[in-house]
Amino acid sequence: MLLQIARLQSSKHDFIEGGKCMILENNAASISKCPFHGAGSEFKPFDQTYWADPHPFWKNARQNEPVFFHPELNYWVVTRYADIKKILAEPATFSSKILKEAIRPLSQRAIEILREGEVNPKNTVTNDDPEHKRIRRPINFAFVPKRVNEMESKVRALVTEHIDRFIHKEKADLVAEMFFELPAEVLFEFLGFPKKYMSEIKLLSEKRQSLKFGDLPPEEQEMEAHAAVDFWKLSKSMVKEVADAEVTPDNFLGDLLRYRNGDDNILSLEDIAGILYGLLFAGHETTTNLAGNAVRTLLTERHAWDEICANSSLIPNTVEEVMRYNPPVFYWRRRALKSVNIGGVEIPEGGNILLVMASSGHDDSMFEDPETFDIHRENTKNHLGFGFGKHFCIGAPLARLEVRVILEELAKRLPNLQLSEDEVKTISVNLFARGPKELWVKW
Q1: How far apart are CA 267 and CA 247, in angstroms?
Q2: pLDDT tens by residue, 79-96
């Protein structure tokens, strides 16, 4: 049983010493009872056992300790739907700039590598207004429904091509055969990037996730920091290559260049590189995980798979139910810009906040019988899997389209699909996304 959290009235001088929480007031140290004896001490974010089946822990936390402090991470952890939605809805109080930082403190050498490489991309995910608004406006200009809808035939052709490559086999790893490459292929097509860079970008993106959201030793941090520098340089190089072309292309990147109209005061080439640096990371790693989570969940809940095979019109709501039940983005972050009360707990100004997005989808105050995967659920689109408010995921329509088409084609061509007997859950351990690294199936 988790212990009920005590309020911690904090100051900028808090520190941990000898396992006790010391609060310095007027140069005199007084010992305060710390809320570290319940969920804060039981939460093991980088433990493989926890990560294999995390939801029982979060159910307990929602019921007994919905907001708690984790001393090792130095984060306040928020688990309930209403509290998470409130934080996402108030960007003036809860800053997104914390997303520029790694979840774990980086080594001095890793910091130097990033600084020397001038890695400072500007994008909507890691900025607050007015900078967020300035960058989001041209993205909205370019990321229009018409462009997304025009992608469906291209996505279907790519999915068909991938299935054709493995359908003659007796079994296949769907991540390796399709889910790893496909989202990058779709994104490169949509953005208008030269495809010759795709393999390199995919590799660099994986490394970037490990650096920012993983638990790496210093020597690995340095290697991944070099990869982040390479990622940033390549983003700038690709933008310059397209900008220097004689004809501005009719795609997302071309729309950004037209919006810029040659004026750095409106949008610089480095601004565009920052936008794409963010989209190239967020736009395909998360979709890879969403596709993997969708198929694994459906094949585990066999009745649901059989239903969508018989009736493809159920697939759009199925994608939403996966986003609620087994979302690709497990955690997100904010920083409190002032002292604020969340769920009866005082979070101090400057407090780091870890939003357990996956927990919000299992909150029974919002979703009836949340542990049941129900593709007919009427309110499943109320999930927070794509965020909420000003920072709602700009790429949500494209991700929905991709996974819908994947499920439609797999259900049509491989209705007897099932998990292979030797299928083993392999999950990347980090404080961002959760999805299978391998997904072995047979038919």
Answers
A1: 19
A2: 999 999 999 999 999 999
